[in-house]
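[User] I wish I could look at a protein chain and see how it folds. I have put the entry right below:
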Amino acid sequence: MKILCISDIHHLEDMAERINNICRREKIDVVINAGDFLSASSARRILDSMQTKTFVIYGNWDEKIVSNNELVSVLSNNIELFKDYYFFGVDERFMSYELIKEKARDMPSERLIFITHHPPYGILDLAWSGNNIGLMIYREFVNEKRPILHVFGHVHESQGVFMDGTSLFVNAAIANTKNGYIVKLPELRVTKVKL
């Protein structure tokens, strides 16, 4: 399965056409968008135009994400099975470590894709200030559960990929670089693409 990982579009509505073009060219099976559109109207215009199955979560600037597109699933603390993988999207405003653990309890790690807006503490979370600003509850969860893939954004300056044992971490914040990442599963092969 090929997954296009993106986050932090920040009103860049022309990204929808670019994303759709990449999905066609690269034969992408699913898009993961880790939030931060900055407005409900911008989110709706982008998501309504998606032509590939898309999982999206709320970012810290998103108050409402709605789409009439049947290909779009807004994951707010729920899990959806797609092509034998479990896509688990967390809305951190309404989630605790105990609830995250409970929701994913029966999910096999090698089939679990964890989607958050903020990074886990200490992984691709270094801010301009030199401080790690990721969330410890995510670090505890990924250390214990070891999902095959964790996609997030938020910290634009730490965009990139990191492999830690069996888990691949992707900070897909595109706002500064306009780079996205294609992840091929189960191989965990990553390709950076310009959007």
